[in-house]
């Protein structure tokens, strides 16, 4: 092993290893489709030693250990958390990795760090199913971004930013093998059944030889998760020319449908992903109430009507700073005295009586106008005189104009009375 300053660049070592494998005849079409190249490093924690050990290995699948074999409900054992635990593997207390110098007196380390240096088109992950781990559920996302464990993963030998090895990091789940546990047999061995789900032409297909069918059926693996099945292995297929996860309709990146027990079955047919951020219009916000509007015209229509109201004194403001300054010093009005209560009740009685009289007067005038119109129409029918019809029409139109004028005058009086009442209220409140 070499001193930290003497380690060759990771990209060079990874490329040399790949060339050496080809020269030994290890390369094949199957190898190129599934084999990963992994770099693992560990650094001695001795104060006067910075030696780093490094290994480069080629594996056909990534086996991930469960984080908590006793946890079956809180989703600690998700694929994302298990990949993170694989990236930074911390040994249990009492265990250590010896320093590459071979000196037992050195502290060594309890941590080894791994990263993917070459990823194949098909990313194969497997979960150990034995002992207590036989039925532990694992959450599987539809889309996987492995850049946190590849080009963005830092190793002890990195001097600053981790080296980029030009890998396409986005994958989509294309196959999952489901294990159904049938308990322990008479011989003490676990009994179970395996079912394979795979994607064909954009549709999830279930291959199960235990149901008596001799043909595949269209079915999403969510059905198996809901029926108590657990993932034994999963295969993710690379999506070419993509460097980021697809988008939700809200504009945020998404890992798609999450396979977890209890989720709704989305159906066998795959949903087409959104690779471009959905276009959403700019948000226009009111500086007073902070409400958002889809366009500038809607905001312009809202502004004249927007007012801030003090809950204590009911005063209104169109300036936010003035409103905030008022709120800081506004005090609730003093309790109403007996005299103020009597004055308020009298104002209400007077206003109600005046309104009743005006309505009665208006109703009487309207009834008189209708009666006059009826009599004139009866006179028109008796005489049949064209001049009488013209006079009646003129009289009706004049009467209508007078009624409109009367209504306006009455409404003006009501508005004046209401304005006067508001002035009285303000005067009483500030006395």
From TrEMBL:
Membrane-crossing residue ranges in chain numbering: none
Signal sequence, start to end: none
PROSITE patterns associated with the record: USP_3 (PS50235)
InterPro entries: Papain-like_cys_pep_sf, Peptidase_C19_UCH, USP, Znf_C2H2_type
Domain of life per record: Eukaryota
Domain USP: 1-239
A Gene Ontology BP annotation from the UniProt entry: protein deubiquitination
Molecular function in Gene Ontology: cysteine-type deubiquitinase activity
Name of the featured protein: USP domain-containing protein
Organism whose genome encodes this protein: Dothistroma septosporum (strain NZE10 / CBS 128990)
């Amino acid at each position: 092993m070499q001193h930290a300053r003497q380690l060759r660049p990771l990209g060079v070592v990874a490329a040399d290893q790949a060339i050496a494998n080809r020269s030994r005849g290890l390369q094949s079409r199957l190898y190129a489709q599934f084999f990963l190249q992994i770099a693992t490093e560990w650094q001695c924690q001795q104060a006067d030693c910075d030696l780093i050990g490094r290994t480069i290995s080629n594996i056909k699948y990534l086996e991930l250990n469960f984080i908590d074999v006793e946890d079956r409900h809180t989703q600690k054992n998700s694929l994302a958390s298990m990949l993170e635990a694989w990236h930074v593997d911390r040994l249990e207390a009492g265990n250590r990795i010896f320093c590459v110098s071979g000196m037992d007196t050195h502290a060594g380390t309890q941590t080894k760090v791994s990263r993917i240096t070459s990823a194949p088109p098909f990313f194969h992950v497997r979960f150990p199913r034995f002992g207590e781990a036989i039925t532990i559920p694992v959450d599987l996302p539809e889309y996987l971004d492995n850049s946190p464990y590849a080009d963005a993963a830092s190793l002890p030998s990195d001097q600053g930013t981790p080296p980029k090895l030009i890998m396409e990091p986005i994958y989509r789940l294309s196959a999952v093998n489901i294990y159904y546990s049938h308990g322990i047999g008479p011989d003490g061995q676990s009994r179970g059944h395996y079912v394979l789900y795979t994607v064909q032409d954009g549709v999830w297909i279930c291959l199960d030889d235990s149901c008596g069918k001799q043909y595949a059926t269209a079915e999403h693996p969510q059905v198996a998760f809901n029926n108590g099945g657990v993932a034994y292995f999963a295969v993710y297929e690379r999506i070419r020319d993509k460097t980021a996860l697809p988008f939700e309709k809200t504009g945020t990146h998404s890992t798609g449908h999450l396979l977890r027990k209890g989720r709704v079955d989305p159906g066998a047919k795959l949903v087409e992903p959104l690779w471009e951020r959905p276009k959403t219009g700019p948000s226009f916000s009111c500086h007073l109430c902070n409400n958002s509007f889809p366009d500038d015209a809607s905001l312009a229509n809202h502004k004249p009507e927007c007012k801030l109201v003090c809950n204590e004194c009911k005063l209104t403001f169109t300036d936010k700073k003035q409103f905030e300054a008022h709120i800081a010093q506004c005090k609730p009005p003093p309790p109403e005295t007996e005299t103020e209560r009597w004055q308020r009740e009298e104002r209400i009685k007077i206003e109600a009586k005046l309104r009743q009289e005006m309505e009665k007067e208006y109703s009487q005038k309207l009834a008189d106008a209708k009666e006059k119109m009826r009599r004139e129409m009866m006179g028109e029918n008796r005489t049949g005189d064209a001049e009488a019809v013209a006079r009646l029409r003129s009289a009706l139109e004049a009467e209508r104009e007078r009624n409109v004028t009367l209504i306006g005058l009455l409404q003006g009086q009501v508005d004046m009375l209401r304005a006067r009442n508001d002035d009285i209220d303000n005067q009483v409140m500030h006395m």
